[in-house]
Amino acid sequence: MFPSQRQRAEHVRRIFDRIAPRYDLLNRVISLRLDTHWRKKAVAAAFRGGERLVLDLGTGTGDLALAAARAIGDVGKIIGLDFSPEMLRLAVGKKNRDRHGGKTFYIQGTALSPPFKDETFDVVTTAFVLRNVTDLSLFFLQAYRLLKPGGRLVSLDMFPPSRLPFSFFYSLYFYRLVPWIGARLAHDRDAYHYLSESVKGFYPPETIADMIKRTGFENVTTRGFLSGAVCLHAGDKPTKV
Known about the structure:
By secondary structure, the chain is α/β, with parallel strands linked by helices. It has helices at about 5-30, 35-45, 65-70, 85-95, 135-145, 165-185, 190-200, 205-215; strands at about 55, 75-80, 105-110, 120-125, 145-160, 220-225, 230-235. The protein has one domain (about 5-160, about 205-235): Vaccinia Virus protein VP39 (Rossmann fold). The longest helix has 27 residues, at about 5-30.
């Protein structure tokens, strides 16, 4: 469909710019408000005490960044990076309304070329981003590069569940009903058709865990929710000997 990865990335950016005003509402409706619960689980998996600097790749409207800001210590800071200016505009609005928002900072940029020095961050997080990345191997390599030795990567994303009968009903809901909901609430059926298809054609969670391991991370774990429709991956960058 897309002659180059750059064109695909630009197409995805335009989609998120378009749906930004209704993005949070649709997330709550489509996930039955479980997305907030999953983000809390991701933050709990990311923090082990003493973290001072966190990078949230593909921060979107800043929900995960703010969840991390509420959990990190008083001296901690969260930097959110995203390629969609419209999503970041909403993230900044949330920052200004949240009493923990002063710990968050937002930058426009791409997760495949983040503008930070090696070994800068204690934690790298990402939520519902992997399916939209044009080069997952490079994505994980960048996360690895940016983490300090002993730092932690935590990823939360959606996957096509494989267990019957849940997978059957999930398919009806997510691949048929979700685009209809998107058309009604966001007036953008095409965007939510893309999001549904991005899940349908995505790797299984075992493949993502293997990619993370091959990047060099250790202690890689996978935790599934909703019969594997949502999975949380975590891994540690080895400490230097």
